[in-house]
Automatic annotation (TrEMBL):
<feature type="transmembrane region" description="Helical">
    <location>
        <begin position="38"/>
        <end position="56"/>
    </location>
</feature>
<dbReference type="InterPro" id="IPR042099">
    <property type="entry name" value="ANL_N_sf"/>
</dbReference>
<feature type="transmembrane region" description="Helical">
    <location>
        <begin position="63"/>
        <end position="82"/>
    </location>
</feature>
<keyword id="KW-0812">Transmembrane</keyword>
<keyword id="KW-1133">Transmembrane helix</keyword>
<keyword id="KW-0472">Membrane</keyword>
<dbReference type="InterPro" id="IPR050237">
    <property type="entry name" value="ATP-dep_AMP-bd_enzyme"/>
</dbReference>
<keyword id="KW-0436">Ligase</keyword>
<dbReference type="Pfam" id="PF00501">
    <property type="entry name" value="AMP-binding"/>
</dbReference>
<feature type="domain" description="AMP-dependent synthetase/ligase">
    <location>
        <begin position="39"/>
        <end position="333"/>
    </location>
</feature>
<protein>
    <submittedName>
        <fullName>Class I adenylate-forming enzyme family protein</fullName>
    </submittedName>
</protein>
<dbReference type="InterPro" id="IPR000873">
    <property type="entry name" value="AMP-dep_synth/lig_dom"/>
</dbReference>
Amino acid sequence: MPPTHDLLLEHRRVAEFLDRASEVGPQAGPGPSLDDTLAALSALGLPPGSAVMLALSNSVHMLRLYLSALLLGLVPLAVAPATPSARARMLAERLDVRAVIAARPDPQRYGVSRVHPVPGAGAVLLGGAGEPAPYGARQVLMSTSGTSGAFSACLHHVSSLLRNAGRHAHAVGMSENDTVLVSLPLYYSYAMVAQVLAAFTSGARVVVSGPPFAPAGYLKQIAEHGVTHSSVTPAIVRRLLDGPSGAPSAPRVLTVGGDRTPPKHVARLLADRPGGELYLTYGLTEAGPRVSTLAAHAEPADRHASVGLPLPGVRAWLREPPDDDAGELMVATDTALVRKITDSPSARRTLAAPGVVATGDAFHIDDDGYLYYRGRLSDFVMIRGEKVSLSAVRQAAQAVPGVERCTTTVRVDDDGSPFVDMEVAVTDPGPEAAQRIRRALNSFLLPGERPRTITLTAVDPQAFHK
C-alpha cells in the first residue's frame, strides 16, 4: 500500500492491520477482536469528541484500544502507564478527559466507585456525560514529551497524522514487505505516528515490544521476529555502541530521532552496518510530528551532523537569525497541530500562524537547505532519553506546602548522563522536611523527572519582604 494523503482509518483496514500485528513474549492465545473492543468502548456511552486517556504499556491491546477509540470518533490521549493518579487527575481536568483506561485503575483515586471492563484493561468514567464533547470526531490529543510542562497536549486531526506518517514512511523506505519493531513508548508521537501509523499507511507489519530497553533483548527480538525496520533514540544508540557487539547488522533500516545524534556515533553505526540504511530524523509533536530526514548512508560525512531536508510538503526557515546564522526554526506544514492546550505562557506561541509552527529549536540551514540542530531554546533537558521540563519540575516542587522557592541545576555523571539537583527554600527546614518534599514529588513526577538530591535552605525573611 503506497503512502497517500487520502488514506482513511476505517474498520476493514484497521482489522487487517491488527490481525498482522504481534507482540514480543509468550502469547496467551488469540486476543479480543476489534469488534469486541469497539463494543466495550461503545458501552461506555461516550459521545464522539470525548477525550479518553490511555495509561497503558506497549502492547497490541493498547493499539487495538487506541485505534478503536479513533474509529468511534473518540479522542485518545496516550500517557505513560506509570503516570501517578494525582497527576492523571489534574491532566484529565485540564484537558476535559471523560474517561481513563488503565490496566488496573483504582476508581477511588478518581472519586468514583466503578471500573468498566474493556478488553485488556479497565475504564473509569470521570463525568461530564451531559456536557457537550470538547473536541471533534477524528481528532487526537498527543502528549508533548515534557517540553511544554506537565499539563500540555497538542490537538491534531487524524488525517494530518496519517499524512505525516505516509510521508515519513516514504522517506525512510518503509513498505508492505517490512516488519517494524515498535519498542519506543507508544505515548510519544515518534512511536505512534512514525512507526505505528507509518506501518499502517505503508502496509508493513508491526511487532510490539516496549521499554525498558535492553540491548540483548533488542537483538533477540530483531532475530526472532525478522525485523527489518527499527526506530531508536540517540540514548539507545549509545547503549548499543557501548555494548560488546556494537550496532547490530540487522535490521535493514535504522531510524534515529528524538534528539541530536553525534556525528561520531553516525560514523560508527555506518561502519558497523555495511549495506544497512540509516536515517536521521527531526520532528516535534506540534508539527505532526516528523519534519525532516537525512539518509545518512547516502550522504558524505560532512552532513552527518545534519537532520536532512524537509519532507515533501514541509517548508522550513529561520526566524531572525543572529550573526552566527543560527536562529529559531520555523516550520510550515499541512500536518501542524490544530491548537495547543497548555498552562505555559511561552508554549502558547507555538502556533505562529495557521499551519506554521515556531519550534523553539535553534538551527542552522546551509546553502543546500540541509537542517543542522543547534539546541533547544526553552528550558528542558534530556534525562535517560526522556525530555524533562525543568519548569514543570520546579512548579511541582513549589506546589508543596511550605516551599517558597525552588531552583534546579543540571549536572552530569562520570558516564556523561545528565541528572537534576534541586535546591528548595522552605519556611521550616526541619529534619522531616526533605523527606516530605521527596514523597510529594515522587507521587507526582515521573522517574526521569525526579531530582537526585534535594537541598533545603531556610527562607531569608529579608529577601521575602523585598
